[in-house]
């Protein structure tokens, strides 16, 4: 569950990236965030995983008020949010297995569990056989599947995906979207920013459009709504 109450974000240079965002995303929803370049989508996502802090307003994730979080609760809340980026952000010197396992090591999961769970999620994304490769030895779609495995390995309830298919060809894009749908089906809430009209208009979900830092549209089974 994600809630925002009158959330504003002004960057240090004076840019008003978000201007009074109010919304509620329920558990297990799948939401697309659409809007023109520079509208505030990435800023909106960064506030949810606490990469940026709001200038004003309250943000709740799974009932925790991110602005009033006790320091000892921060790792717990972070672990419950998996993040996926357009450029994968894998560690180039670590193998596929190590990239995914690393996310469990930082939360000090038991070694045995790390091995079992890492291979489990690599199987889910279809990469168990390639666990010993380095990221550069994989295609873009495979690298994104590793990033997805890393995002879900700690079983987060929320997945934030910022243009996860932005660098991929159409076939690979659909593979990644099937995977996102599967993860949603298994119980995670998904918030995904995208410029991909075809995905949004084919895999119908809730669509929230942001323009100039404000929500201008919020529709169940909505459409992309922009010409590209
Ligand atoms: N760190 C920053 N410092 C200053 N301004 C920023 C920063 N990050 C983003 N902005 C500005 O905030 C506004 C919103 O940017 P944001 O990246 O959230 O947009 P976006 O909708 O994700 O765009 P895109 O679709 O191009 O990724 C833009 O005007 C951008 O230039």
Automatic annotation (TrEMBL):
<dbReference type="GO" id="GO:0051301">
    <property type="term" value="P:cell division"/>
</dbReference>
<protein>
    <recommendedName>
        <fullName>Cell division ATP-binding protein FtsE</fullName>
    </recommendedName>
</protein>
<dbReference type="GO" id="GO:0005524">
    <property type="term" value="F:ATP binding"/>
</dbReference>
<dbReference type="InterPro" id="IPR027417">
    <property type="entry name" value="P-loop_NTPase"/>
</dbReference>
<comment type="subunit">
    <text>Homodimer. Forms a membrane-associated complex with FtsX.</text>
</comment>
<dbReference type="InterPro" id="IPR017871">
    <property type="entry name" value="ABC_transporter-like_CS"/>
</dbReference>
<dbReference type="InterPro" id="IPR015854">
    <property type="entry name" value="ABC_transpr_LolD-like"/>
</dbReference>
<comment type="function">
    <text>Part of the ABC transporter FtsEX involved in cellular division.</text>
</comment>
<keyword id="KW-1003">Cell membrane</keyword>
<keyword id="KW-0131">Cell cycle</keyword>
<keyword id="KW-0547">Nucleotide-binding</keyword>
<dbReference type="InterPro" id="IPR003439">
    <property type="entry name" value="ABC_transporter-like_ATP-bd"/>
</dbReference>
<dbReference type="Pfam" id="PF00005">
    <property type="entry name" value="ABC_tran"/>
</dbReference>
<dbReference type="InterPro" id="IPR003593">
    <property type="entry name" value="AAA+_ATPase"/>
</dbReference>
<keyword id="KW-0132">Cell division</keyword>
<keyword id="KW-0472">Membrane</keyword>
<feature type="domain" description="ABC transporter">
    <location>
        <begin position="2"/>
        <end position="228"/>
    </location>
</feature>
<dbReference type="InterPro" id="IPR005286">
    <property type="entry name" value="Cell_div_FtsE"/>
</dbReference>
<keyword id="KW-0067">ATP-binding</keyword>
<comment type="similarity">
    <text>Belongs to the ABC transporter superfamily.</text>
</comment>
């Amino acid at each position: 569950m994600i809630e925002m109450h009158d959330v504003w974000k002004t960057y240090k240079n004076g840019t008003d990236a978000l201007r009074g965002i109010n919304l509620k995303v329920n558990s297990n929803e799948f939401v697309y965030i659409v809007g023109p370049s520079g509208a505030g989508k990435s800023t909106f996502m960064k506030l949810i995983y606490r990469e940026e802090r709001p200038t004003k307003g309250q943000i709740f994730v799974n009932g925790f008020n991110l602005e009033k979080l006790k320091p000892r609760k921060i790792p717990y809340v972070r672990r419950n949010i998996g993040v996926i980026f357009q450029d994968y952000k894998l560690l180039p010197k670590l193998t596929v297995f190590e990239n995914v396992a690393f996310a469990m090591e930082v939360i000090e999961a038991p070694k045995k569990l790390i091995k079992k769970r890492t291979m489990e999620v690599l199987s889910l994304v279809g990469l168990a056989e390639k666990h010993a490769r380095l990221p550069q030895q994989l295609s873009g779609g495979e690298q994104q599947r590793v990033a997805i495995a890393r995002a879900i390995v700690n079983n987060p309830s929320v997945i934030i995906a910022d243009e996860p298919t932005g660098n991929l060809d159409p076939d690979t894009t659909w593979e990644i979207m099937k995977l996102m749908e599967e993860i949603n089906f298994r119980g995670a809430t998904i918030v995904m920013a995208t410029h991909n009209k075809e995905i949004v208009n084919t895999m119908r979900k809730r669509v929230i459009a942001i323009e100039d830092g404000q929500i201008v549209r919020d529709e169940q089974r909505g459409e992309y709504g922009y010409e590209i």
